[in-house]
Amino acid sequence: MTDIENAQCTFIPILEIAQPLIAYLSHTESKATFTRIQEAFIEPLLQCFDTRDGPRDLDSVKHAFILAHSSTGADRLTPSTADVVYKALLDEIFASASSEDAREWNRKEMYRIWKAGVNQSGSRNVDPDGS
Hints:
The chain has one domain. The protein contains 6 helices and 2 strands, in the order αβαααβαα. The chain has helices at 3-6, 14-27, 31-49, 60-68, 82-98, 104-121, and strands at residues 12-13, 70-71. Helix 2 packs antiparallel against helix 3, helix 2 runs parallel beside helix 5 and helix 5 (82-98) runs antiparallel to helix 6 (104-121).
C-alpha cells in the first residue's frame, strides 16, 4: 500500500477555526471590528452551511469541498453534515454571547445573528431576549 492509501482522511475542524473569532466578537470594544468580522467571516460561514436554498454567492467548487470535508468533532475523523455544522455554529454564537464577560452591545448583536440563523433554519424556538 502507498502512503496515500494508508493516510487517514481528516476533516476541516470548523468549530476550532471559528471559536476564537466568535469569542472575540463577544469582547471587542470596537463596533467596526465587530462588523468587519461579522460581514467577512461569520455571515459567509453561516451562509456556506445554510443549504436550504443551495449555495449563495460562493464559488461552487469551494463550497462543495468545504461542505464535504467539514467536521464539528474533536477527532477530525468524522465528517459532519451541513445542518450539524450550521447548528453547532449557531450554538457557539449563542454560548459566546451568553458568557458573563460578554459586552452588552456585542451580546445583543450576537443574539440578533443567532436569532436570524434560528429563524432561517427553524432549528430552535427559544428566544434569548424574550421578544
